[in-house]
Structure formats: structure tokens, C-alpha cells
Amino acid sequence: MTKVFLSVAMATILMTGTAVAQHSSQKAAIGVKGGLNLYTIKQAQGINYDAKVGFNAGLLAHIHLVKHVALQPEIVYSRQGGKGSGAGVAFERNLDYINVPVLAQYMFDNGFRIEAGPQVGILVNATHKSGNTLTTDVKSFYKTADVGLAGGISYVHPASGFGVDLRYNLGLSNINKDNNVKSTNQGGQLGIFYLFSHRH
Q1: What is the pTM of this model?
Q2: Residue 122, pLDDT score
């Protein structure tokens, strides 16, 4: 199921960018991105998680709709989770997602943008590391899909196509299979990206 989802999502991004680029009144570009995460698991009861550092990497399609307005769908591998300690032992929960945000952007003339939109994540791996050695697979404790909102700011250097973005992702759905305890993903991302054939 996950492989099918990833294939469809990637094909959608590539085909959307290609189709829009064929219209002279619109512009589209495909790009690559990567960066750092600072994520935690917000839990209503029980364990209190601290933020942990991870990474993200993936593809994006930047599609100009009208002047100053664009749509940016992405497909991004994201290392998330949280860390903490209990009974004197440090632990780390690693949750690996394939996230697909679809962001609406307002583009200023100087290269800055503000962006916001929905995000769907598909869980591909989940582990619990206790101390320095013991790692346990805990994927069965979590739901496959995670729904949230993403928002932030970005800047692209118009002449080169290189840019940076700063984003906050707020999980809305309970990621636990046990509905008696609500947990959500929350975190920030700092990244760099490059748009191929970027036009300004």
C-alpha cells in the first residue's frame, strides 16, 4: 500500500508540473529539497516528549497559478519523533514518514513567499531506542496516516533557483492506534531547495 501511494504521489507531482508548464500563461518548475527537523510528540497523557533533531529530503513542484500566487505540492521523507527519559534511562522514539504537503503560496516581488496548506503523512518506520543499545520496532502501535497543517515562509533567489524555507507542521490527527491516549506530531523544519529551470 505504501509503495503504491508513493508511486502515485511522485507521478502526480511530475505530471502536474509538466502539464502546467505547457501553458504559456503559467509557469512550473520541479525541484529538490532537504534540511533539518526539530520534532516532538505532543501527548495528552503519560509520557512527556522533548524535541529531537531529524532530517528531511524530497521533491517539490512549484506551479504559478496567477500573479503572486502559486501551488507547491511536495513529497518528502521526514525523520520525526521525540525523546525523553524514564527511570534514569534516556529513550528516543523515531517516526519516519513520507509527507505530502500541498501548499498555497503568496509570492512577493523580492523572492520572499508565505505558504500554508494541508499535509498527509504515511508512516513507513517506527522504532523505540532505550539507552545506547536496545532498539524495538513499535510501528504496530501507530496509525498509518497522519493529517496536519503546514505553514511558513521561504525565499528563492530569482536568478539561480536556490532557496531556503522555514516551516512549522502541526499534526491534527491522533497517531496512536490506542484512541484512549491522543498523540500528535509537531515540529519545525529548516531547509534548502533548488528549482530546476526556475523562471522569475
Answers
A1: 0.84
A2: 97
